[in-house]
Amino acid sequence: MKIHQQTIQLNQRRRGFHIITADILSALPQISEFKAGICQIFIQHTSASLCINENADPTVRIDFEMYFNKAVPENDPDYEHDYEGSDDMPAHLKAAMLGSSVTIPITNGRLALGTWQGIYLCEHRNHGGSRHLVVTAWGE
């Protein structure tokens, strides 16, 4: 069994949903060495998240942002945690809803994503800064 792990830093991105599949593949080219395995991507933040979804039509990402803004609105007077601004607590809630990691099979040296699937960085802050990911691949 082989294991490769790399911590990567993503440049700051605006609030929204961003495809980062190419960033992952660039950071861990050793994925090509695996006949079969698993790739796990973990984000080291509590106000951004990861998910897998549509990679072709950008309106899907726009609709994701619209939906989550409706589901978890800013400026709710019931929020107590608002030290860093009106987007702070909503960002934590959105991140909890979507999750901090994704796991993808590796087949014949490639991520076994479906035809229309891509890995999203879900940036929930107006000014979230750079984001750190730990990418781990293991298998044969």
Automatic annotation (TrEMBL):
Domain of life of the organism encoding this protein: Bacteria
Family matches, as SUPFAM superfamilies: YjbQ-like
One Pfam family matching this protein: YjbQ
Family from the record: Belongs to the UPF0047 family.
Protein name: YjbQ family protein
